[in-house]
Structure formats: structure tokens, C-alpha cells
Design brief:
It is a single chain. By secondary structure, the protein is an alpha+beta fold. Helices cover 32% and strands 23% of the residues. The strands form three sheets. The chain has a four-stranded mixed β-sheet with strand order 4-5-1-10, covered by helices on one side. A four-stranded antiparallel β-sheet has the order 6-9-8-7. Helix 1 packs across helix 3 and helix 2 packs antiparallel against helix 3.
């Protein structure tokens, strides 16, 4: 049995519309992934989804030493993807994309969730804060919330929801997560979850939730 040291990696992938080969990317995906791609109305959104999910397959395949198109996934009750047999339980992963950038988290330490957001104007930010942040979180943000602060807290909360597999259907205002920083912080609930922000390119913020206090190693896909 080969021993693999614990690791927590984040792979960043920049989507380049002019150089991305849509046919090659589509050939790597399974029917369910292709059906998800077809739900997008705009062709450019379909191409972006296809490219980032092809990148996910290439990353996972490199860890597992298999062909990207051979990867098979199963899905949790809320749609969180997991590796299917014969790779079940060997790695945990999560994908987030915003704008032209994607973050792919991979670990062998347990569940993981990652969220990436492009900095932008957030419409109706005060009203939205009341719906998605707890009273404690809103007090921490203060009355003058900037889009940057809002999105930093939002990425942390979404990363935790992806870690647990709950998704955003739960009552977000009843859960206090707090904003992640570059120092790993263990949550009270879920008690097996650590949150950390990670360094993103200019114009983006990101957070990762994992079952380890390890700092994530951030890498770029070529």
C-alpha cells in the first residue's frame, strides 16, 4: 500500500475563450455533465462550464493516474459531486468558478468546499445581507458594508455549505460562520471544519473549508 502524505491543493484555471477547444473539452465529459452544460442559455456560458469541468477532470486524473474521460462521479442529495468506484474515497474535491477563473480544491484529508467570487457591485447588498448572514455576522461587518467585505464573508459561508454538502437551500441567516482569514480557523459547527482564505488574482476573493488546519497550496494550471 502506497502512503500519500496529507495535502490540500487549490488549482486555479484561467478560461481563455480564444484558445479553449470546445470539442476536445466536451469529449472528456460524461452525459450528466453535458446535460448540465446545455442548461445555460448563452453559448459562451456553456463553453466556459465545459472548459472548467474538463479542467477538473484533468486535475483529478493526474492525481489518480487515469485518463480524464474515464473518471466517474456520484452525487450527494444536494448534488455535490464525489468520486465513484473504483476511486471512491481516495480524494475529495470541489470546484468553483466566477468570471473567467476557476478554483479546484483537491485533498486526501476529508470533505472540502471552495468558493471563488469576482469582485463586483452587489445589488441590494443590505437586504441580501439580512437574508444570507446571521445577526452576529452582520454586526461584525458593521453598517457600512463594502462589496469586498460582503463577498469575503459570502465566499467563506458558501465554502462551508459546500463542505457539508448542504448547498444554499438552508436558512443561511441562522448559521454563523464568520469571515475567513489567511490563518486557519476551526468552526464550532460543524466542529470538523476549518476555514481559510486563499490568495487570489487581483479582482477575486476566495475561501476554502476543509477538515484540516493545513494551509492550502495554490497552484496554476498551465
Amino acid at each position: 500500500m502506497t502512503f500519500m502524505p496529507s495535502f490540500l491543493d487549490i488549482w486555479l484555471n484561467q478560461y481563455h475563450p480564444d484558445s479553449s477547444d470546445n470539442a476536445t473539452n466536451r469529449a472528456l465529459l460524461d452525459r450528466q455533465e453535458l446535460r448540465r452544460a446545455e442548461r445555460f442559455v448563452r453559448d459562451e456560458d456553456r463553453r466556459r462550464f465545459t472548459a472548467q469541468h474538463a479542467a477538473l477532470r484533468q486535475v483529478l486524473a493526474d492525481y489518480l493516474k487515469v485518463e480524464p474521460a474515464a473518471m466517474r462521479f456520484s452525487y450527494g442529495e444536494t448534488g455535490k459531486p464525489l468520486l465513484a468506484k473504483p476511486w471512491e474515497g481516495k480524494l475529495e474535491f470541489n470546484l468553483s468558478h466566477s468570471g473567467e477563473l476557476a478554483a479546484i480544491a483537491v485533498t486526501n484529508t476529508g470533505p472540502v468546499g471552495v468558493d471563488l467570487e469576482r469582485l463586483r457591485v452587489v445589488q441590494h447588498m443590505s437586504t441580501l445581507s439580512e437574508k444570507v448572514f446571521s445577526p452576529t455576522e452582520r454586526a461584525q461587518l458593521g453598517s457600512e458594508i463594502s462589496p469586498h467585505e460582503f463577498l469575503e464573508l459570502w465566499t467563506t459561508k458558501e465554502a462551508v455549505l459546500k463542505f457539508t454538502g448542504e448547498g444554499i437551500a438552508s436558512d443561511l441567516s441562522q448559521r454563523t460562520v464568520g469571515r475567513a482569514t489567511t490563518d486557519p480557523r476551526k468552526l464550532a459547527s460543524p466542529s470538523n471544519c476549518w476555514v481559510t482564505s486563499f490568495v487570489c488574482p487581483e479582482g477575486y476573493v476566495g475561501a476554502i473549508a476543509s477538515s484540516t488546519p493545513l494551509l492550502a497550496t495554490v497552484k496554476w494550471l498551465p
